[in-house]
UniProtKB/TrEMBL annotation:
<comment type="similarity">
    <text>Belongs to the AHA1 family.</text>
</comment>
<dbReference type="InterPro" id="IPR023393">
    <property type="entry name" value="START-like_dom_sf"/>
</dbReference>
<dbReference type="InterPro" id="IPR013538">
    <property type="entry name" value="ASHA1/2-like_C"/>
</dbReference>
<dbReference type="Pfam" id="PF08327">
    <property type="entry name" value="AHSA1"/>
</dbReference>
<protein>
    <submittedName>
        <fullName>Ligand-binding SRPBCC domain protein family</fullName>
    </submittedName>
</protein>
<feature type="domain" description="Activator of Hsp90 ATPase homologue 1/2-like C-terminal">
    <location>
        <begin position="24"/>
        <end position="144"/>
    </location>
</feature>
Length: 163
């Protein structure tokens, strides 16, 4: 298997999604580490809170899918880093939280370490970019307007694959 860095030389493929959330950094950060909040805009179940060195499982029950997550770093209100995906080729996801003077937070999510041939790496990066964009949009609606948009659940509605 070829890694993304092998395919791209010194410029590995990076999936990136970013969004301004008009809430204080502590509230935005907590939404990603506390599954009681995260399950309102992303996955449906978690085996626990994100903590440094901890392994958790996230489930998307509507899809019958799950992923093992290994928490690599937590810097309160600043950064989260995890490894997730297939055990033999996990990728790294990093959240960066930048507080703003207007009590808002700029969130940047990157996903790196894709493997496979060039087409597979591009497909993974595009899927990750789309997915994390939906996650951030869902978070924004939840925290700013207390609305659950069900973006992740509605991305692949039942029966669509048959059309």
């Amino acid at each position: 298997m070829t890694s993304a860095s092998d395919q791209q030389g010194a410029h590995p493929v990076v999936a990136r999604a970013e969004m301004l959330i008009r809430k204080p950094v502590d509230e935005v950060f907590e939404a990603f580490v506390d599954p009681a909040i995260t399950t309102k805009f992303w996955f449906t179940r978690s085996s626990g809170r994100l903590e440094p060195g901890k392994d958790v499982r996230w489930d998307w029950e509507m899809y019958g899918a799950s992923v093992e997550v290994s928490v690599k770093a937590i810097e309160r209100n600043a950064r989260i880093a995890i490894a997730w995906g297939a055990a033999d080729s996990p990728t790294t996801v990093e959240w960066r939280f930048t507080p703003r003077a207007d009590a808002a937070t700029f969130v940047s999510i990157t996903n790196t370490g894709f493997s496979g041939d060039g087409a597979a790496i591009v497909a993974q990066a595009l899927d990750a970019t789309e997915g994390f964009t939906l996650v951030l949009a869902g978070l924004k609606a939840l925290l700013e307007h207390n609305i659950s948009l069900n973006l992740v659940a509605d991305r692949f509605p039942a029966g669509l694959e048959e059309q």
